[in-house]
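Have a close read of this protein, sequence plus C-alpha cells, and explain what the C-alpha cells say about the fold. Thanks in advance:
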Amino acid sequence: MLEQDPASMAMADFHWVCPVTVEPEHKIDAALQNMIGARVRTLLVMAEAHMIGLITAYDIQGQKPLQFLRGSDCIHPKCRHEDIEVADIMTPLATLPMLRLEDVLRARIGDILETFRETHQTHLLVTDRHGGQATMVRGLISLTEIERRLGISTDHASAVLIEQELSGLPRSAVRD
C-alpha cells in the first residue's frame, strides 16, 4: 500500500466487519482475554447499545492501569489491578478524533497518516449519516494498521506512545 492509495483501504468498515465490544464494567484482564480470543487489539466500549469509548491492548498492558491506581480516581474498595474496570482506563468517545465517511472516501493513506501525526492518537473513528438519521460510528482506522500497510516500523510509533504516557506521569514517577 502506498501513501496515495485510498484511505478507505485501511479502515475497518463496520458495514462489513462486526466490531468486537465490551461493557464498561468488565474487568480489564477479562477484556484483554476477549481481545486475544477475538484476535483483535481494540474493543469498542458499549453501554445501552451506544458506544461510549474505546480500549486497546496497549491501554491495558501499558501505563494506564498504574496511573489509575496511583491517582485519586481509583474508587474501588482495595484499588488493586484486578479491580480495574474498562471504564476506568478507556478513551472516552468525546476525546476520540472523528472523521466523516465521505471525507475518508476522498482521502489518501498519506492524508490519514498526517491526521494521526497531528492528533497524537492511535485510532480515528469514522462516522456516517444515513438520510436524516443520527450520526453513527461506521468504522475505525488504526495507526498500527496504516504503518503496517505502509511498511513503517511500529517501533518508532511505540516509542512515541511511551513518551506521551510518561509525560502524563508525575516527575517523581519518571526515572532517567
About this structure: The helical segments are 28-38, 57-61, 64-70, 86-89, 101-106, 109-119, 143-150, 154-167. The chain has a mean pLDDT of 84. The first strand starts at residue 11 and ends at 13. The chain is about 40% helix and 20% strand.
